Recover the amino acids of this structure.
């Protein structure tokens, strides 16, 4: 699958199928057996996209500001897949950390494990996973630990460190990973600088 | 046109990462820095300079002067014994003052011309006209608006370090540009590509060209007539946008042309979704090798959504915006529509433009009221290339520009 083709597949998969699945259910449920999620409001998506184009990350919408937006989570998911700039896609993914719903978790997990996706997107998806109940989701936790250990682009591993450092089971995973010789120097440095 | 305190703090955080400065005894309980009770601050500066006060600069040229400062400490902060006085000649066009002590937080605790306060941190921290605040390399420049055009007189300075560095030596950098204002100017550029960052030279050129279009069309300056592109040896193309690594990277960006603006291209920042960052409003322009002597920009954040193509127009507008900060320009309008820059001829987009009532003003909502200005707080799909006459004057007359 090329990087051009995965995006619409992921979108339809997320919006129509697996995003309705619970966190421990299989992700490849046929679309027809799921209820479709309502389409995001175009006006809201447009406004949110405009806010995500802030010059400085300090000016991005806060959790409180997002809470005032009726369908912010769905809109962010849409932008995370459909926006035409890396700027908006990565910021939308990272802001999904303020939401912990299963559809969001499914979207983020799919990106984290998509080896064809740009590393910046995978790192942003890992950042977004900070809002997921990973301590109660061993399979998802495994995905994050795998990202930590995979080598390659250090952004992915460093983002995994930051997510794992937010909860006890994650910190335990980091301590165990520290013994591994698979860690890249950047990821090891990120662990040690916590 | 006052800037709200929150906005000012954001400016400072944006430029310096001061939130990480743990242990400093110089922060008020609410996290805000406060001015320092130095011996000099106990009295008003003289309106007339002492006879032996040095004269700034050389006629018809830009001059950079470095003066060693020996600090005295009160155990928490450090300062010099008295005001430092300099004669500003009548042909001054622009001036920049910067205080440096490694990566320690510094500030110009007090600054006055002819006894009239311009910066007075003990009594008015972060307030107009300069909104000055402690940062790594504290810098104040004139002009940043039509109200801050420098004039001949007696400059008094009270520099401080927010650390116990008694007996150690810091530096005062003074950059002065003397001569008449010119109708046109140019800004030279040093480009540093960090480590293994992947970007084609043609894309660097395209981005700088786009920035140049913004500046030239606005009447500010021609950008990059003299441009040097080099690789900066660095262990990693992914770097922190603030903190020690950013400080060290900016300090390493030294070239044979210190009078040019330094642009550092990194593959990406470790902080997701960061476009670029100036090192201050302003940075210590004309002074290279300090923790604040460059603008940094991410390559990957400027890619298209699939990560396939570099959006060089967007990158050029980021460069224009961040260099605007580095030279001394603020956002024309902040997100709430309540805070605006100190420039009198930039459009102000107020809350009446908040059509959807979400208390945040997008460039689209403000399209007819400054949303196309290159210093608006968000980027925009429709491009931002507008510049007011006073913004252009600030850029054209800055110490980093040269007459053309």
């Amino acid at each position: 699958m090329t990087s051009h083709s995965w995006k619409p597949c992921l979108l339809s998969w997320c919006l129509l199928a697996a995003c309705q699945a619970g966190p421990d259910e299989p992700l490849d449920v046929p679309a027809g057996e799921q209820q479709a999620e309502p389409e995001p409001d175009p006006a809201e998506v447009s406004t949110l996209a405009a806010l995500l184009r802030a010059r400085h990350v300090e000016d991005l919408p806060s959790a409180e500001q997002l809470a005032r937006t009726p369908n912010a989570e769905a809109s962010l998911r849409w932008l995370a897949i459909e926006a035409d700039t890396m700027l908006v896609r990565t910021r939308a993914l990272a802001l999904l950390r303020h939401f912990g719903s299963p559809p969001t978790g499914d979207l983020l997990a799919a990106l984290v494990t998509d080896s064809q996706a740009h590393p910046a997107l995978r790192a942003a998806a890992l950042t977004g996973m900070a809002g997921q109940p990973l301590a109660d989701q061993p399979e998802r936790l495994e995905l994050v630990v795998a990202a930590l250990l995979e080598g390659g682009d250090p952004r992915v591993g460093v983002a995994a460190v930051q997510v794992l450092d937010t909860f006890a089971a994650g910190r335990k995973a980091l301590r165990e990973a520290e013994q591994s010789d698979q860690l890249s120097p950047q990821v090891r440095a990120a662990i040690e600088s916590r | 046109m006052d800037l709200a305190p929150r906005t000012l703090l954001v400016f400072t955080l944006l430029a310096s990462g001061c939130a990480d400065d743990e242990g400093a005894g110089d922060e008020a309980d609410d996290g805000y820095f406060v001015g320092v009770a130095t011996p000099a601050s106990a009295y008003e500066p003289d309106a007339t300079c002492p006879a032996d006060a040095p004269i700034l600069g050389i006629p018809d040229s830009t001059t950079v002067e470095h003066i060693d400062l020996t600090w005295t400490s009160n155990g928490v902060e450090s300062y010099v014994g008295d005001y430092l006085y300099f004669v500003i000649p009548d042909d001054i066009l622009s001036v920049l003052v910067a205080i440096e002590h490694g990566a320690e937080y510094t500030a110009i605790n007090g600054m006055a011309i002819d006894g009239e306060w311009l910066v007075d941190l003990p009594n008015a921290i972060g307030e107009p006209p300069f909104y000055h605040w402690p940062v790594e390399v504290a810098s104040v420049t004139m002009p940043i608006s039509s109200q801050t055009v420098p004039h001949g007189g007696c400059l008094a300075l009270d520099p401080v370090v927010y650390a116990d560095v008694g007996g150690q030596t810091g530096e005062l950098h003074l950059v002065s540009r003397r001569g008449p204002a010119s109708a046109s100017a140019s800004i030279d550029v040093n480009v540093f590509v960090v480590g293994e960052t992947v970007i084609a030279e043609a894309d660097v050129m395209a981005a700088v060209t786009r920035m140049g279009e913004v500046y030239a069309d606005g009447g500010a300056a021609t950008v990059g007539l003299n441009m040097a592109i080099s690789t900066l040896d660095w262990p990693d193309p992914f770097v922190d946008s603030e903190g020690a690594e950013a400080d060290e990277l900016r300090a390493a960006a030294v070239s044979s042309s210190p009078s040019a603006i330094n642009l550092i291209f990194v593959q990406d920042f470790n902080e997701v979704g960061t476009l670029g960052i100036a090192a201050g409003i302003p940075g210590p322009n004309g002074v290279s090798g300090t923790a604040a002597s460059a603008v940094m920009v991410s390559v990957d954040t400027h890619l298209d959504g699939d990560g396939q193509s570099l959006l060089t127009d967007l990158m050029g507008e980021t460069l224009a915006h961040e260099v605007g900060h580095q030279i001394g320009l603020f956002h024309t309008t902040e997100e709430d529509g309540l805070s605006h820059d100190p420039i009198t001829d930039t459009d102000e987009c107020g809350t009446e433009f908040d059509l959807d009532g979400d208390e945040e003003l997008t460039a689209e909502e403000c399209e007819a009221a400054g949303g196309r200005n290159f210093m608006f707080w968000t980027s925009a799909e429709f491009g931002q290339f507008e510049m007011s006459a006073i913004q252009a004057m600030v850029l054209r007359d800055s110490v980093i520009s040269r007459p053309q």
In short: Chain A is about 55% helix and 0% strand. Chain A touches chain B through 43 residues (CB under 8 Å).
